[in-house]
Amino acid sequence: MKIYAYIMINVQTGKTPEVFENLKKIKGMQIISVTAGEYDIIARVEVNSLEELYDITNKIHAIKGISRTITLVVEKEYQRRDK
Amino acid sequence: MRRKYLLYFLSITSAFLTASAISCDTYLSVTYIRDPWILGTTLFLTGTLTAIPLMICFCIKINKKFLGTFIDPQFRGFIFPKGDFLKNILIASGANALSSILYFIIVTNIPDPSAVLAFSSLTPAYLIITDIIIEKEHPSLVEVQSILTIVLGVLLVSLSLETIDLIQLAIVLGPYNLSIVLFNIATKELRRIRSKSTYYDSLNIRFWLTIFSTLIFIILELMINPPSIVTRSISFLLAYFPLLALDMTLTFFAYATYIRALAIGKTSIVNALASLSTIFGLGFSIAFSYILPEVFCVKYPLLTWIIKILGIFLTLSGTIVLSLTEVKALVFIKVRAGIPSNILELLLKICGVETASAVAGHWDYILYIKLRTIKQAYHIITNELSKISNITDIIWVTILREYETV
Predict the structure, then answer these.
(1) Which of A62, B145, B214, B368 satisfies CB 3.0 to 4.6 Å to B355 for a cystine?
(2) Domain span(s) for CATH 3.30.70.920 in chain B
(3) Fold held by A3-73
(4) Which of A1, A46, A80 to mutate to test the interface with B (most CBs of B within 10 A)?
């Protein structure tokens, strides 16, 4: 069963393009959004297990320029579009 | 694969196949079957006859995978329509039958595929107008400008025709495009309906659309014409079956790729890309006017060509601008005890909400939203979310740039 999670990322000033490009290289990234508001980047990830999610968050923490992350695991979801 | 590249691939493939199928229609109508009703019946019957073996092929399993999954990964074999799926199939088929009758009337009078294709470019403009009427909102300046550009472009393409007919123009601007809009809305809805936790695939949708459209078309036909028209259509079917089968196979795949694209992207973006069929159609018109000059009589004077090309560019630019005016956002919601148990369903019903997720952590719910204008955000926050009791905090995060994979 697939597990989905949102990872909200705050980035140091001026580092957004660099972080965005590095995030694209991580396997499992479904959507990466650069946003205006409380968070700088929000990533939606698709993994097979929580251990895989742990690996992805570790890879994200290793990217230079990231100051803070918050991970929210999806418990239930309704969609209008298909995947 | 990046989601947007898949969307481009599917829409452009559909545009190419559509232009090829319309060239076949033109050839058939000018050379063999001049009556629009007989042409329509023959093509619908052939469509059904070709769709059945195609579906059988799609259901063949190779390495435990259906052949159909190579065209649509959602394909899980043959499905019988029921419930909401059946209802929307009937609506889409009715709209398809009506637009087809009008299309055959147009195609039997205009021996230039690119001119016929230009008329369908009005669909995105009609979709936006429908949206504006339903939401009782004023259109933005960009939307008004784009709609006028598209209409002007289409008029320029049609004015270049030597046989301009006001009745035909009225058919195109009215019932033809309105039935296409209804078809688009019902088809988009079809891809949103789930069957056993999975979405219906484009191949099953196209197959059932073909079956029901044929039935509705023949019923409509028998209400207007004598029953002998069906027997005459069958004799044409037997005489020209190879070309008819090629035409309807191209149409099947053009629709299947279009339906799949509709499920991935915004209807106006898919239509914008699909309107490239006008350019493909122009290419076919020019090529065939040299190969088969007696069929494709599109040798216009230079000035007409310039007007025609200007019209196509205006239509394309207007459609592309219209499709790019989109706002995406994420909304984070925090709630306290006592929230309705069907909260996810309620959130998904809000206009523009594409995904509603219940999450564990700092926030309780996340909404992924797509809107036509930022003005709609105000409506969502003040009118829709405030209606739900026990929401304690909401933050709105506008998406500036997005990378998405399939």
Answers:
(1) B368
(2) 327-398
(3) Alpha-Beta Plaits (3.30.70)
(4) A80
